[in-house]
Fold:
Amino acid sequence: MSDKKVVLVTGAGQGIGREICLGLAEKGFDIVGVDILADPENRNKGLFEVKQKVEGFNQKFLSVQADISNLDGHQKILDSTLDRFGRIDVLVNNAGVAPEKRVDILETTPESYDRVLSINVRGAFFLTQRIVKHMIHQVGEDANRKPCIIFISSISAYVSSPSRPEYCISKAALSMVAKIFADRLAEFGINVYEVRPGIIQTDMTAPVKEKYDKLIAEGLIPQKRWGYPSDVAKAVVSLARGDFAYSTGLVVEVSGGMNIRHL
Ligand SMILES: NC(=O)c1ccc[n+]([C@@H]2O[C@H](COP(=O)([O-])OP(=O)(O)OC[C@H]3O[C@@H](n4cnc5c(N)ncnc54)[C@H](O)[C@@H]3O)[C@@H](O)[C@H]2O)c1
Structure:
């Protein structure tokens, strides 16, 4: 069994997930990175680029290519983690997608609705359910183990965007998923947290960069800048290493103050 803590990060191949892997590797975690983006020939993008970087911190990195919306693949994710490391201490449910096209709520298609919810909510829910059963077993064997689960939701859990309702609905639902798991798992000493990023500069927001540049310049964000993946990763590292041990169910917003309502 690995003598280091092991974290499993979904959507680890780029953006926020990638930065979470690097932040946790720097703090001494071994990492399992799950993503669709996993081409061993491509060292510039995807899990194999992240693997190189993590190994640069002298940590181990296991790449698992999987689509989290395919529930049949979840056992393989757990099995490969246990085969390699023999333990799992932290699960970061980060993989998520925006709608392929922003479309007004009056025109949202069932296909887009199902796609976004099946990845952002259904996939994360059932992957968590499976991993948690193993975590409960681990805690039963050694009560000193304090595993935790972190969900990356979004300010879209409470901000309305009529041009991408399926995304907002998925993040509002994910927020409740985090709350219910926190409630259910407290008796096992497994803490559950929700991290809510605001507007973060990644490939996901690249298509709307100009729109957000303008809104930020006009004062949309009190802290007056884009968020970076490293802003989110720092919060995740702090939660994962146990700085908030008496705060299960905590929601940490990383949005430059977009949570502030003002007159
Ligand atoms: N960028 C933002 O402004 C922002 C804001 C709030 C919340 N978020 C959330 O943060 C998370 C990461 O977003 P990001 O900006 O880094 O996005 P991104 O598109 O840059 O990266 C997402 C990663 O998830 C992977 N992925 C997508 N679908 C997957 C699936 N079905 N199975 C496995 N992997 C899958 C992608 O291949 C990619 O590597 C998402 O849940 C997103 O909703 C992002």
The mean pLDDT is 97. The chain has one domain: 6-254.
